[in-house]
Design a protein that fits this description.
This protein is an all-beta fold and 467 residues long. The protein has 2 domains: 311 residues, Tachylectin-2, Chain A, CATH 2.115.10; 128 residues, Sandwich (Jelly Rolls). It has 2 helices and 31 strands. The strands form 6 sheets. Strands 22, 23, 24, 25, 26, 27, 28, 29, 30 and 31 form a 10-stranded antiparallel sheet that branches. Strands 4-3-2-1-19 form a 5-stranded mixed sheet, with no helix packed on it. A 4-stranded antiparallel sheet has the order 5-6-7-8, with no helix packed on it. Strand 9 and strand 10 form a beta hairpin. The radius of gyration is 21 Å and the shape is globular. The structure holds beta-D-fructofuranose. Beta-D-fructofuranose (FRU) binds next to strand 1, strand 5, strand 9, strand 13 and strand 17.
Amino acid sequence: MQTKNTYRPAVHFTPPANWMNDPNGMVYINGEYHLFYQYYPSAPHWGPMHWGHGATRDLLHWEHLPTALYPDELGCIFSGSCVLDKDNVSGFGSTDKPPLIAVYTSHHTETHQEQQSIAYSLDYIHFEKYYGNPVITGEGKTDFRDPKVFWNPVKKCYSLVLAAGENVEFYSSPNLKDWEKTGEFQAGIHGLGGICECPDCFPLKTEEGEKWVLIISMILPPEEIGKHNNAYDRMSHITQYYIGTFDGNTFTDTEESGFPLLPDFGTDNYAAVTFQNLEEKVMIGWADNWDYAAKAPTQNDGFRGKMTLAREMKLVKTDRGYRIAFSFAGTKALEAGAFPLTEGDNRLHTDSFGLKAAVNGTGSITLANDAGESVEIAVTEDEIIVDRRRAGQTSFQEDYGKESYGLNRAPRLLHHTSQMELIFDRCVLEVLADDGMTPFTISLFPTQPYDNISVAGDIRAMLYHLR
Ligand code: FRU
């Protein structure tokens, strides 16, 4: 049990110092998961962006590696992706030593012009920028960013999807250097509209064959924020997903559900993307919120910004259509040591732990401390509600303390027995409810560690330690 309160999480990735936002360039190589990220190494707030770099073998314990990309004359280094070029189509390496190619946005600091550039690495740590940058010019556009490269199984080449204003655009390339536009998708048609950011596009297996998922993070137009005060419009930034087909040129949304599908119902999961070169589809998001991240009270612990845990995805058919079901990808080995909690109060001897719970009816789980602070996860007939309004510090920023941000709610998808997974790690809570189809990621700042967990109602929970 910690004696001094620290907010730096034990198993969630945080930068070595100062500011971090989006995950970038996630790729799996030789047993190692690499994570690059939007990094401003000089101050605990957003600034000229670099790509920071971390790596892990178990998705829980991270090593910091040298900063991978620094700003240059084309601008600073905005979000993007990496691809392990196994066939050396780029010619930057060889098939024995496949180059790792980073495809990122060069954002010009004065003109705000955004263009796509590439860099390559042969040791997967140090990068050389391509002399022919930019590789996609964007003709002066200012909202034209965040390329995510993926294998195009139809054309048998690499494609990328990037954010272009209120649309996303698809490009393909024979060599990762010469790119040609193949199509676009209008985000606002079967979902919410706004300026798109950080798209990702990938296939997932289902009983009815493969389906494609398109994920888009989005800045809502100011006049839309808070209009209905629901999960979709309460914040300036949200992430949504679409399910459909990819014909080699563009994505088509075929599961028109009538409302946006959200990969997270909490306040703190943005710009989430998946690993390249990994059989399973595993996602990590930035576990913060643009509305208040720059004021988060973690500067005394030397960092601002944290990532979600890695979550594996499956597509599941429900009576309301297909949904992504998430599960924690790195915690399986630790779950073996889980022990049951009793109904009522349990003393906690840890400030980073996981719970596996069987939800057989309605009930709640509450984490509390002696300072009178608590966070409650309630399962009702109709809703899952995560209430962080009294969880700890709230006054560091006005949005954070708002009712609409403090009360996180989502409609229930299941009415039979379901599984719930929960992770608490010092300043971040992740809940995967209704068999993982209803996730919540929430930042919270207790002034002293929660040392009591109480379970009420028809919930049977097992606890394991995160070490
Ligand atoms: C999303 C985002 C991206 C951009 C990056 C800049 O959070 O705005 O669109 O590339 O952050 O740091």
